Protein 1
Amino acid sequence: MNVLVTGGCGFIGSNLVKYIRRHRPDWKVVNFDKLTYAGNLENLTELEGDPNHVFVRGDVGNKELIEHLVRLHGIEAVMHLAAESHVDRSILGPEVFTVTNVLGTQVLLEACRATGVKRFLMVSTDEVYGSLGPTGSFTETSPLQPSSVYSASKTSADLMALAYEHTFGLDVVVTRCSNNYGRYQFPEKLIPLMVVNALGDKPLPVYGDGGNVRDWLHVEDHCQALLIALEKGRRGEVYNIGGGAERKNIEIVKGILSALSKPETLIKYVKDRPGHDRRYAIDPAKIKAELGWKPAHTFEQGLAETVRWYVDNRPWWERVMSGAYRQYFDTQYKARLDQAAA
Ligand code: NAD
Ligand code: DAU
C-alpha cells in the first residue's frame, strides 16, 4: 500500500510514520509536512536512507501539489494528522487554526476526491465533545460541543470529512482520540513541558486548581489504533480511541517531580486557561469490540519511560525549543508567572 501521511514530522505523525515502517515494511509512506514550529525532521532520523519513506515539505492547502503527489506515488490512502494542535496557541492566535485545520482539511479532501484516493483517515480529537462533569464518558454519539478555537476547528474538519463521505462518496473513517503522551512530543504540552522545566529547576505552571482531568493514551497505542482503523474501519464510521487512564493534572505533575526526585515547591499555580475544559474521558468500547484494538501500555509504565526519554534526549528538546519558538515560549511563560505573582 502507498500511503500519504500529513503532519508526519509532528509528535504523533512521526511516531506513526515509524510505526508503519516497522509494522508494514512493504508499504511506501509519503510524509507530507509544512515543518511549522511543531514539525521536526530530526524526529525521523532513524528512517534516513529508507527508500520507502519519502518526505515532501508542503502545505495541506496546496491542492496542486497534493494531487501531483497522489498521482506520482500512486497514493491509495491518506492519513490526515497535519494541524495546529495546541489549545493555548489557539487562544493567542486563532486565525491559523481556521486556515490549516478547517480550510486545509477541505483542500486536502478535494484533492483526494479529484484523484480518487481509496481511503481517507481523518485524525480528529475527543475535544470535539467539549467538557464532561465528574462522571460519564464520551461515546461516538455524544453531542459535539467544542469549546476552544482549536476544538471548534477540529470539529469543523471532522464534520467536513464526514460530509465528503456522505455527499461525494469518498471513503472516510474518523478517529477521535484522547490526550497522547510519549517521545518526541513538543515541550509546550503538559507532560514534556513539566519534565523540561523540572529538569531546569524552573517553576511548573499548573493552570487553575490543577483538578482538570485528561484521559491519557500512549502514542504507540494511538498509532496502532490508527493503523487498525485505516485497514479495518468501516466507511463513514467514527471510532473513539482512549487509554482508560484518567488523571488530574496535578497528579501528573507530582508524578513527574517524584520520578525526577525534584521538590513539589517547584509547582506554581497560575491563572487558568480561558474556557478550560474540566474533564475528558473516552469510551473506546466500539473500536475494541469492532476492530479488536486495545492499548498495550499502562499509564505508570508509559509515563516513567517517557520521562526517562526526555532525560536522555536533552539535545533534541533543547534544539526544538530554540529559535522563534523560544521567543513565544518565554513571553507566554513569563506572563503566566507574572500573573501568578500579582
Ligand atoms: P503536532 O503539533 O505535534 O504536529 C503537527 C504537524 O503538522 C507538524 O509536523 C506540523 O509541521 C504539521 N503542519 C501544521 N500545519 C501544516 C500545514 N498547513 N500543512 C502541512 N503540515 C502542517 O501535533 P500532534 O500532537 O502530533 O497531533 C497530530 C494530530 O492529532 C492533530 O490533527 C491533532 O489535532 C490530533 N490529535 C492530537 C492529540 C494529542 O494529544 N496530541 C490527541 C488527539 C488528536
Ligand atoms: O484531548 C486531546 C487533545 O489533547 C488534543 O486534541 C490536542 O491536540 C492536545 O494538545 C491535547 O489538548 P490539551 O489542551 O488537553 O493538552 P495540554 O497538554 O495543552 O494540556 C493538558 C492539561 O494540562 C490541560 O488541562 C491544561 C493543563 N496545563 C497545560 C499546560 C501546557 C497546565 O496546567 N499547565 C500547562 O503549562
Protein 2
Amino acid sequence: MGESVRIEIEGKTYELPLIIGSEGEKAIDINELRKKTGLITYDPGFGNTGSCKSAITFMDGEKGILRYRGIPIEELAEYSTFKETAYLLINGRLPNRAELNQFSVLLNDHSLVHEDMQLFYQNFPRASHPMGILSSMVNATRSFYPELQTAEEEINITVTRLLAKVRTMAAMSYKISRGHKVVYPRSDLAYCANFLNMMFDSPVKPYVIDEDVVRALEVFWILHADHEQNCSTSAVRVVGSGKVNLYAAISAGIAALWGPLHGGANQAVIEMLTDVHASGYKVSRLIERAKEKQDPFRMMGFGHRVYKTYDPRAKIIKGMCHKLLNKLHMKDPLLDLAMELEEIAMRDDFFKENNLYPNVDFYSGIVLRAIGFPSNMFTVLFAIGRLPGWIAQWKESLDDPDWRLSRPRQIYIGSVLNHYVPVDKRK
Ligand code: ACO
C-alpha cells in the first residue's frame, strides 16, 4: 500500500491515495472521491488538476525549469536539431545515427502533399487566417489517406505523414495566399531549410539558405516542441480520448493554439508593439492599461499559468533575437520597444506581485519577423513546432492503463424542475 492522505468532510474521515511523481510533485488521487463521499471537485481552468501521468515533459514553474524526457531545454537548444528533438519526444529517447538517418528518409518520402489538396487551398478566401486553413487541411488529410490495415502501421505512418506534410501544407497556404506558385519540398534539404525554401523561394528570386537563419528557426521549433498539459495539448488529449483519428485530434490542437491567450499571443505581441510604434505613444501607457481593472487589455507576451518566474524559453529566444539581428545587420525598432517595456514592467509592483514575466511569445515574433515571416504565419510556425509534443502526448495516452474518455462534471446552477408550457399558454 502506497502513501495516502486523510481528508475530513462533514465530520467523516476518508483516506485517498497520494501519487508522487519522479521529481517529487505530489497529487491526491480523487478517482474514488465521488464514490466514497458523493462530492466532486470544482477547479475552473484545471489549475489544480493533474489530468494524466506523463513521462514526456517536466516543468517547474517556480524555478523556471523545462526538460524534455529529462534533458534540459537549454542543452537541446544548444546542441540538438528540431528533427532529433521530435524523435526524442515521440520515441522517449535520442536516436542513434542510423535511426536519425532513417527518420530523415521517412520525413523526406512523405513530404509531398496530395495534388488534389491544392484545390482546397485555392478555394479559401484570400483573407482567411492560415491557422484556420491549417486546422481544416490537417483534418481533411484523413480523407486523402484512409485508415491502414494494422493499428501499428496506422500509428507509425500517420505520425510520419503529419510531421512531414504539415510544413509543406503551411508553406503552401502562404504561397497560395500571396497568389504565388507552390514550391515543392527538396530531398537535398534538411527539415528546417526545406521549409524555409518552400516558404521563400521564387522563380524570380531564388532563396539563399543562411545557416544562422536555419539555426534560429531550428531553436524556435525546439523551444515550442512540448509544454506538458497546456491548452492545445489538453485539447488533443481530450479529443483523442474519444478514439478519433490522429488527424482530427491534431486539428483540434491547432484550433486551440490559435487563441490569443495561447499560441496566438506571438502575433498579438507584434501587433501590440506595432501599434505603439505607429501611434508614437509611450510604452508606459501599456503598463498602465494592463494594471487598470476595468480595462480588458492584457499585456501580450507576459504572464503564464505555470511559470511564476522568467520563462526559460523566453531567455533563450531573447538571446537568439539579438544574435540574429546582429548577424543580419538588422535593426528592429520593435525590439527596442520590447526591451523598454520589459525593463519598466520588471520594476513595476503590479507585475512583480502577480509574477508577470515575459513568456516565450514576447520576443519570438521579432526573430520570426527578421527571418521574413508575416505576422499571420507566426502561430502556424508555433503549430509546426508543437506537433511532435501533441503526437507524443496522444501516443502516450493510447498506452496509458488509467486513460478514460474525457468527461468532466459540472455544478449545475440552472432552474430546478420546470414543466413544459404549450406555446399558446405562454405569456
Ligand atoms: N496583462 C495584465 N494582467 C495580467 C496578465 C497580462 N498579460 N496576465 C495575468 N494578469 C493578471 C490577471 O488578470 C490576474 O489579475 P487578477 O488577480 O486581478 O484577476 C493576475 O494577473 C494573475 O494572473 P494569473 O492567474 O497568474 O493568470 P492566468 O493563469 O489566469 O493567465 C495567461 C495566464 C492567460 C497566459 C495570462 O497571463 C495572459 O493572458 N497573458 C497574455 C497572453 C499571453 O501572452 N499568452 C501566452 C502564454 S504562453 C503560451 O500559451 C504559449
